Amino acid sequence: MNPRTLVLVTAALLLSAFVAATALYHRAQADAATRRAIDHGDRLIRPHAPILGDVTAPVTIVEFFDPACATCQAFHEPLKALVAAHPGKLKLVLRYAPFQIGAEHIVALLEAARRQDKFWPVLDVLMETQDDWKPLHEAELPRVWKHLDGLELDLDRLRRDMSDPEIAARIQQDEEDANRLRIDTTPTFYVNGRPLPGFGFGVLQKTVEAALATLE
Amino acid sequence: MNARLPADWWLVFAAWLVAATATLGALFFGEVMGLPPCLLCWYQRICMFPLALILPLGLAAQDRHIVRYALPLAMIGLAIALFHQALVSGWVPKSLEPCARGVPCSKTVVEWFGFLTLPWLSIAAFAAIVLLLTLAFRQGRR
């Protein structure tokens, strides 16, 4: 073998070893995430969690989400469309994982809006206007209020409810569950109690469709 | 194996294997496992990563001058790695620690068999490369 071939073959072997090690590591991580989801299945869904779709639907997506996360924003509309496309068969359970700076206030606002039965309209508005109230990678609650006009919210009550210890306890419960499941990015999805085999809306859609197919 | 290739070529080849393994290992820790490198780790990477690229170029061209360019890099890397370990061990006062923010260099993120930490691995890799390249340099001058 001439030196050039020897160098090329060695480089190819080293790179393949790296690629193989990466694949093995990802597989092991995915298996660990699945085991955690099984071991802590009771932490995936809590009775207090908001649900989109029919509560009795057999296929369940659990999403740990952050209203201040841009990727969660990108998933928002397609997710709603996905749930709407399978009435009675698919539901979405939302759990909070406010990892972005200032996001905990936005979550408190959502929970307070829920007491006035305005959770979904407020969430829609928040997702539409995220770029405005999160100008520099930080959620700024004072910039949110003007977007809530026209939703017929009792703003005084909303502000009071936002500091209600019961709401704080719910958010803390979600945080605890996310920690135990070792969720460190949003959105993180579980379909029927299992983590997704990868990331992306396409992966989510395929997993959901596979779960729906087993019903028939 | 090729008998026509001189001994110093094989010494540089061995040094490259060490540098490439260390580079891929560092990338694995940083990019695959998501462990962020500290500031001193970055300085060691600045010395190690080019070795993984320029050594094979010299090997392919059978350029003996490669040692002159690679050896200083490896020596600087070794010096930084030794300083890093001195910091972790507390031989250097913590006030000299250059990382104020982010990942502190004194934090131990990986420890195998109870003693093998990343700074030690870095010292071992740079020391092996320095030794192999020095031997190659001597061989090449004969």
Note down, in words, how this protein is organized:
The complex is a heterodimer of chains A (216) and B (142). Helix content of chain A is 54%, strand content 10%. The model of chain A has no long low-confidence stretch (mean pLDDT 92). With 216 residues, chain A is of the alpha+beta class. The radius of gyration of chain A is 21 Å and the shape is globular. A 5-stranded mixed β-sheet of chain A has the order 1-3-2-4-5. Helices cover 68% and strands 3% of the residues of chain B. Chain B is built from 4 helices and 2 strands, in the order H-H-H-E-E-H. The radius of gyration of chain B is 16 Å and the shape is elongated. The two termini of chain B are 22 Å apart. Residues 96-102 of chain B have low confidence and may be disordered. Chains A and B meet through helix 1 of A and helix 1 and helix 2 of B.
Q: Choose one word for the global shape of chain B.
A: elongated
Structural class of chain B: mainly alpha
Global structural class of chain A: alpha+beta
Strand fraction of chain A: 5-15%
For this structure, the quaternary state is: heterodimer
Strand count, sense and closure of the main sheet of chain B? Answer: 2 strands, antiparallel
Query: Widest sheet of chain B: strand order?
Result: 1-2
Structure characteristics:
heterodimer; A: about 220 residues; alpha+beta; B: about 140 residues; mainly alpha; two-stranded antiparallel ribbon; 4 helices; 2 strands
Strands, helices and their partners?
The complex is a heterodimer of chains A (216) and B (142).
Chain A: H1 3-39, E1 51-52, E2 59-65, H2 70-85, E3 90-96, H3 103-114, H4 119-128, H5 130-133, H6 155-162, H7 165-180, E4 188-191, E5 194-195, H8 201-213
Parallel strand pairs in A: 2-3
Antiparallel strand pairs in A: 1-3, 2-4, 4-5
Helix pairs in contact in A: 3-4, 3-6
Chain B: H1 7-32, H2 39-61, H3 66-89, E1 111-112, E2 116-117, H4 118-141
Antiparallel strand pairs in B: 1-2
Helix pairs in contact in B: 1-2, 1-4, 2-3, 3-4
